[in-house]
From TrEMBL:
Belongs to the LysR transcriptional regulatory family. This is LysR family transcriptional regulator. Pfam families: HTH_1 (PF00126), LysR_substrate (PF03466). It comes from Corallococcus exercitus. One of its GO terms (cellular component) is protein-DNA complex. The keyword Nucleotide-binding does not apply. InterPro entries: LysR_HTH_N (IPR000847), LysR_subst-bd (IPR005119), WH-like_DNA-bd_sf (IPR036388), WH_DNA-bd_sf (IPR036390). GO terms for molecular function: DNA binding; DNA-binding transcription factor activity. Keywords: DNA-binding, Transcription, Transcription regulation. Residues 1-61 form the HTH lysR-type domain.
């Protein structure tokens, strides 16, 4: 079998993501017959179909799924090299929600050079890794680490993980020993954060707690906590002022968690990505509450 022509691989990746020839042709700035022809030539080279047509959508075959995973951004990288910087296409970013909403978005919003063409998504940490591997985004950001031969993780931010409470619960938990049978407000991917916080303060013998409510995003979590319906472990930078929320601190050193930029190993780095990472590491353009790294103190009893 001959190696497929490189433009055919790029076409395949776009059709796979779009699940249709019409949308893929628009993204590639080509005619639909050209896209269909290139896809057919690739199938002839491979000796097997890549898609099945069901209603108005194309459904990938198992071979297409394997090929897409194998390419892992290769076709995108080759296209970027052939076309130069290709800075006219949007900068595509995948970031875990808390970091994306409270740190990354404000930075992008204030940057004239970075917000001109932008796509910012908030998937789970595992989905961040997958999207970077498959070349769906230019860079990802995750508060969790991973080891993969095709991924490079670079530390770009340190966040503090804190216990936040309303006035009543802050007074009840002035002493660490009082943390027993406490209602926690949890959120998606919060298990990792809660586990780290409990291990930091209590070691292996965790006190009993229970989930009193669960939400998808931190905004709802903080609203629930502000109403006195429980406490939560969150990144310190997301706590709003003037809501009666305080950090419960027992005099222990701050618990920090590293946020990593996730990129494909040895893939071309777009200038916009390099600029974004440099601004994150510099930190001077971050929101004041993030830059200071300080949290409100617990109220006096």
């Amino acid at each position: 079998m001959d190696f497929p022509d490189l433009p055919f691989l790029r076409t395949f990746v776009t059709v796979y993501e779009s699940r249709g020839v019409t949308e893929a042709a628009a993204r590639l700035h080509r005619t639909q017959p050209t896209v269909s022809y290139q896809l057919r030539r690739l199938e002839e080279t491979l000796g097997a179909p890549l898609f099945e047509r069901r209603s108005a959508r194309l459904v990938p075959t198992p071979l297409a799924d394997r090929l897409f995973r194998f390419l892992g951004g290769f076709a995108r990288d080759v296209q970027a090299v052939l076309q130069g910087d290709a800075e006219d296409r949007p900068l595509e970013i995948a970031a875990v929600s808390g970091f994306g909403r409270y740190v990354l978005f404000p930075l992008l919003r204030e940057s004239e050079s970075l917000h001109r063409a932008l796509t910012l998504r908030y998937p789970s940490a595992e989905e961040v890794f997958r999207q970077v591997l498959e070349g769906q985004v230019d860079v990802g950001f995750s508060f969790r680490s991973t080891v993969h031969p095709r991924l490079t993780l670079t530390p770009v931010h340190e966040e503090q993980l804190v216990l936040v409470a309303g006035r009543t619960w802050a007074r009840r938990l002035r002493v660490q020993e009082h943390f027993q049978d406490v209602p926690l407000v949890t959120y998606d991917e919060g298990d990792y954060v809660v586990g780290r916080w409990l291990g930091h303060h209590f070691g292996r013998r965790h006190p009993h707690w229970y989930s009193t409510a669960h939400f998808e995003e931190l905004e709802e979590v903080l609203e629930w906590v502000a109403r006195g319906r429980g406490v939560a472990v969150v990144p310190g930078f997301c706590i709003p002022k003037g809501r009666g929320l305080s950090v419960v601190s027992w005099g222990k050193p701050a618990l920090t968690n590293t946020v990593h930029a996730v990129q494909r190993t040895q893939a071309p780095v777009r200038p916009a990505v390099a600029e974004l990472l440099a601004r994150l590491r510099d930190g001077r353009e971050l929101p004041a509450e993030v830059r200071r790294g300080r949290s409100p103190r617990s109220p006096a009893p």
